[in-house]
Design goal:
- InterPro entries: NLP_P60_dom, Papain-like_cys_pep_sf, Peptidase_C40.
- The protein has 169 residues and is α+β, with helices and mostly antiparallel strands.
- It is built from six helices and eight strands.
């Protein structure tokens, strides 16, 4: 199942983000080494929702989702975790993580509305995250944290899945 997840991510990146097409094979190898078990299931579930419509206040694939509704839906259905409703409330859960220590499955937060922690997404690895975008595409999509828009608005990250990396006890 993890291989399917990485194939889906790489296919999406090759089609919609041609700049990553040449790196797709190497990215899947490095990402595969860092993702296992519950994290892989969570990421696979999140990626399966790419293209779902954005709707402010929405929390289901059938009617559309906003950023926090998307994150809540994924964590509830893939990991059995119940999260608060808003991005700012979600930012108070889990443990704080430095940007250089991000792992796939961590939550990343941004200031997109001139207020702290107003946007949330799920980190995929290789500086990419999946989120419900109201303006870029109007749906759930993958973005690069190093894009100027996101890098200027990064607020912090939280870890809810405290699984050790493969090879660690």
């Amino acid at each position: 199942m993890r291989i399917i997840f990485f194939l889906l991510v790489n296919l999406y990146l090759a089609v919609f983000h041609p700049v990553y097409a040449n790196d797709a094979a190497s990215d899947s190898v490095s990402a595969h080494a860092a993702v296992d078990g519950e994290r892989a299931d969570l990421l696979f579930y999140a990626v399966s929702l790419i293209g779902t419509a954005y709707r402010y206040g929405g929390n289901s694939p059938q009617t559309g989702m906003d950023c926090s509704g998307f994150v809540r839906y994924v964590f509830s259905n893939a990991a059995g975790l119940q999260l608060p409703r808003s991005a700012s409330e979600i930012s108070m859960t889990g443990e704080s993580v430095d940007e250089q220590d991000l792992r796939p499955g961590d939550l990343v937060f941004f200031d997109t509305m001139k207020r702290a922690f107003s946007h949330v997404g799920i980190y995929l690895g290789e500086h990419r995250f999946i989120h419900a975008s109201s303006s870029q595409s109007g749906n759930i999509m993958i973005s690069d944290m190093h894009e100027k828009y996101w890098s200027q608005r990064f607020e912090g990250a939280r870890r809810l899945l405290s699984l050790p990396l493969p090879g660690n006890p």
